[in-house]
Design brief:
alpha+beta; Diaminopimelate Epimerase, Chain A, domain 1; 2 domains; 18-stranded mixed sheet; 21% helix; globular
């Protein structure tokens, strides 16, 4: 069996920027062990698998190590593939996922994700986590339900930019991924995402993190529309909007390559 595969740079307007994701449209679901093996072989932060269904497409995401419940950049990449390569004629897509129905709309080259907002509660600033990150945070938060990541808040963009995590120590310090964030110098807020627990030391651009960051910074800055930058080495930009219990994230994507997975 041979299957098509696309590699897309998401939240980017050019190749070699944003966050690369693999996208594989499937005629039917393969077994989970095969999906995980493909994601491990791709060795990208996420591989998105798609199967057409009555309500659009079923969508699943795998890191090289685990399946995840929500992924923004690989959803953006999947939508890009459907619009640009697979002939989807409308301007809206529906995805059935472990996090419920997700929608993506197209306006020119811009794609907008409609994701559930994540509410945060106060957590304790863990000095072990801070030591592993390389700087002490001023505030810590975590999702109120199904916690998957800690949010550590810093005073300045330079604090987040200057983090040099010890990833082995971070795996010992917490079972959760860590999002570091601060006010931006030239945007509303910046962030970085560290996930050695799920096989991703640092994720270049993390849409799902902004489901939590957008409500937090919206309340703090008293505005619903926000410009965000993830200041990883590759970097990425997102236009975010809090709309009730939903977060809208807008960005673009570029195809880096496409080909065939053979030998399955």
């Amino acid at each position: 069996m041979e299957l098509p595969i696309y590699q897309v740079d998401a939240f980017a307007s050019r190749v070699f920027a944003g966050n690369p994701a693999a996208v594989m449209p499937l005629p039917h679901w393969l077994d989970d062990a095969t999906l995980q093996a493909i994601a491990m072989e791709n060795n990208l932060s996420e591989t998105a698998f798609l199967v057409r269904c009555d309500r659009g497409h079923e969508l699943r995401w795998f890191t090289p190590a685990v399946e995840v419940r929500l992924c923004g950049h690989a959803t953006l990449a999947a939508a890009h593939v459907l619009f640009e390569h697979l002939g989807h004629s409308g301007d809206q897509l529906q995805f059935q996922t472990l996090s419920g129905e997700l929608r993506v709309t197209r306006a020119g080259r811009q794609l907008t994700l409609d994701f559930p907002a994540t509410s945060l509660v106060t957590a304790e600033v863990d000095l072990g986590v801070c030591k592993a990150l390389g700087a002490i945070a001023s505030e810590a938060l975590m999702p109120s339900e199904n916690p998957h990541a800690l949010v550590y808040v810093y005073e300045f963009e330079r604090d987040v930019a200057g983090l040099r995590p010890d990833f082995a120590a971070l795996r010992v310090a917490t079972e959760l991924c860590v999002i570091a964030t601060a006010p931006g110098d030239e945007c509303d807020f910046v962030s970085r995402y560290f996930g050695p627990q799920i096989g991703i030391d640092e994720d270049p651009v993390t849409g799902s993190a902004h489901c939590a960051l957008t409500p937090y910074w919206s309340r703090r800055l008293k505005q619903d529309k926000l410009q965000a930058r993830q200041i990883s080495a590759r970097g990425g930009e997102l236009a975010c909007e809090l709309r009730g219990a939903r977060v809208l994230m807008t960005g673009s994507a570029v195809t880096y390559m496409h080909g065939t997975v053979a030998g399955l």
